[in-house]
Structures are given as structure tokens and as C-alpha cells.
Amino acid sequence: MYNLDTPIEYLKGVGPVRGDMLRKELNIFTFGDLLNHFPLRHLDKTSVSRIADIKPDTDYIQVAGVIVHVELTGAGRAKRLIAHLKDSTGTLELTWFQGISWVQKALEVGQSKLVYGKTGYFNGRPQMVHPEMEAFNNLAVKGKPVLDPIYPSTEKLKVKGLNGRQLAKLTEVLLQTIQPADLPENLPDTLLQSLRLIGRYEAFKYIHFPPTPTDYDAALRRLKFEELFIAQVRLQLVKVQRHQTSRGVI
Question: Which of 71, 89, 207, 227 is most buried by its number of CB atoms within 10 A?
Fold first, then answer.
């Protein structure tokens, strides 16, 4: 039986090598650690930007198009993989400096791709460095959650294929593996009802994969309150212990 204390390498899709990387890079040792590795943000899967609308100060966005060019250039530390993604409005340069061999296998001219990342301008052209990428078609956003979690990762993990999207897949597997009994309720029912807080298991599901923004807000509110409530209880226990100790001194 799995539980929140199960070592992370036993989660389907992880294994010893990835487990070691998760421990070293993100301090994720157990199922519980991954569960508490919350998304940085959520991306609206229905929101796809046009390349022509990319500005120098554009933040993280999602772009869809066709790969029209793939090129390996430079040598040594200057070696990089460049691909051009084209939509009906323009061309976006995709650049990788690490994990080149792995990425190159996933790139072919003519493929439709959905890419996500932070954009900028290089030599007067829009560019996205080390984007996250997946196959795309016109139906790609249908049948999936509207809000897609974006998780913090590291360059070393990305090189090993553990980017934000892969972490999302592992978290999805985790939530399918654990049971509600693994996250027992720790707040009184009367408190949940009076404050209209959702349950603990539901809160952890929705903080990662909320069906709607409202569900995410409800999960965040519940977990923040839980953190504050537990901190207050611990503080009161310390005060009681100190009081009992002081009364015992003669």
C-alpha cells in the first residue's frame, strides 16, 4: 500500500534515476513532498497567443504553430538547437542550450506544437528559450482541464525531461494513487461549515488541478486557513506548557 510517506521513486513514472534527481533538485523525497509541491501558476489551456502579438515585455504565454525549421548550430558551450514555429501571423524562434539531444528527437519539420514559456526578443525577432512543448491540434484544448498547472522546476531536471508539464503528469498520477484516507480531515466539521471551507482531500486536488478558478480560490483559502489554524493551536500549546512549567517551579 502506498501512502504519503512512500519514497518518491515508487511513484509510477519516476523510478530510481528521476527519484534521485527530484531529491537533489527539489527536496522531494516522498509522495507527500510532491503533493506539497504546489504550482507557481495555472495556465488557461484555451488561451493561445498569436505570434504577431508578442511584445518585448510579454510574460509567459502559450503559442501554437507548425515547426518549419530545425537547426543545430555552434560548438562546445556555444552549441544550441534552434527551431522556428510558425502560425498564421508570424514566426517564433525556439532555442535550447541544454538537453539538446533529447529535444531534437521530439522535433520534426511539419509537426504541430503547443509551446509554453517566457518570451523575449533577440536580434529583433520574438524568441522563447527552453520552452515546454507538446503535440498540438485544433482539438488539443478540448477534454482537458481549463487550468493547467505550471510547476517550478530546474534546468537540470528539464534536461532529464522533468519540466513543469512532466511534473504535472506525475502529480496527476499521485492524486490517482493516494486515497482520501491518506489526507484525513484535521479541522472540526463545525468550523468547516461555519466558514464554508472545502474538505482537505478536495483542497489538495483543486490546488493542483482546479476545474475552475473558483475551485482554485476555494482550495487556496482552505489550505491557508489550515496552516494558520495549526500554527495558532501550536502556539497555544506552547503557552499552556510554559504556564504549567512555571506553576511547577517552587
Answer: 207
91 Cβ contact list (under 8 Å, min separation 6) = 51, 68, 84, 85, 125, 126
- Give the side-chain half-sphere CA count within 13 A for 161: 14
Output DSSP code: residue 7: B
Architecture in CATH of 47-135: Beta Barrel (2.40)
The predicted-structure confidence for 136-162, as pLDDT tens digits, reads as follows 865 445 555 578 898 988 888 887 778
Q: Is the pTM of this model over 0.90?
A: no
Question: CB of 112 within 8 A of CB of 135?
Answer: yes
Q: Where do the domains of the chain lie?
A: 8-40+149-180, 47-135, 189-248
- Please state, as a whole number, how many other Cβ atoms lie within 10 Å of the Cβ of residue 154: 14
Q: What is the pLDDT of residues 233-248, one digit of tens each?
A: 888 888 888 877 766 5
